[in-house]
Amino acid sequence: MGVSGSGKTTVASKLAEHLGWNFAEADSFHSPANVEKMRSGVPLTDADRWPWLEAIAARIGTARRDRKPLVVTCSALKRSYRDRLRSGHDDVRFVYLQGSYDTVVGRMAGRTGHYMPPSLLQSQFDALEEPTSDEAPITVPVDGTPEEIVTRVVDALGLSAPHPQRRSG
After folding, report:
1. Once rounded to an integer, what is the mean pLDDT over residues 66-86?
2. Residue 38: other Cβ atoms inside 10 A
3. How far is 1 from 110, CA to CA, in rounded Å?
4. What is the DSSP string of 115-147?
5. Helix 46-66 crosses helix 32-39 at what angle (to 10 degrees)?
6. CATH architecture assignment, domain 8-157
7. Which entry of 106, 120, 161, 169 is 20 to 30 Å from 112 by CA?
8. Beta strand 70-72 with 22-24: parallel, antiparallel or unpaired?
9. Is 64 helix (H, G, I), strand (E, B) or coil?
10. Contact predicate 27/131, CB 8 Å
């Protein structure tokens, strides 16, 4: 979890690969209307986000039901969003990629091919409710390399060897 440009996709895909777990990119759950809204520089509202969050929560639910470990990216900016994604299951953990506005906007300025413009970053920081200790987040600063961040997450989860079950999506 974290604001756009914090490295969610890069870190999550590397983490899933390292662990041999499935991976799902939350951006693929957005409706075409949400994508167009963001592409046009219009921040999403809670009403825009709830169907997206429901779709992600359903994917997490399927992974849990099928006992197929999953790493999924999601900004999960608010506590209520994380509560919905977790749906009361303590085995759903959040890795918070924490970075300053200046660090993240610098990264966004150098990326290409993404519909989320840097002009919307401030709206994400404005909406962000950092996870609190009762949510048991794994908070990792974004100033390390993706590999260093993955190592910190794996260590925090107490995992090392790849999980034997792996499927894409």
Report:
1. 96
2. 21
3. 20
4. SS-GGGHHHHHHH--PPPGGG--EEEETTS-HH
5. 130
6. 3-Layer(aba) Sandwich (3.40)
7. 169
8. parallel
9. helix
10. no
Which tokens hold the place of 53?
């969050």
pLDDT at 129: 97
d(C-alpha 81, C-alpha 56), whole Å:
11
Q: Which residues pair with 138 in a beta bridge?
A: 95
Residue with structure tokens 């609190």?
132
Q: What does DSSP assign to residue 7?
A: S
Side chain identity, residue 53: L
* 58 SS3 class: helix
pTM of the model: 0.86
d(CA 11, CA 17): 10
> What integer is the mean pLDDT of 68-95?
94
The whole-angstrom separation of Cα 139 and Cα 10 is 16
The residue behind tokens 């906007």 is 105
- Residue length, the chain? 169
| Distance of alpha carbon 66 from alpha carbon 157, whole angstroms | 21
Count CA atoms closer than 13 A to 70's CA, side-chain side.
Answer: 25
Q: Where are the domains of the chain?
A: 8-157
**Alpha helices by DSSP H, the chain:** 8-19, 32-39, 46-66, 79-86, 101-109, 121-127, 146-157
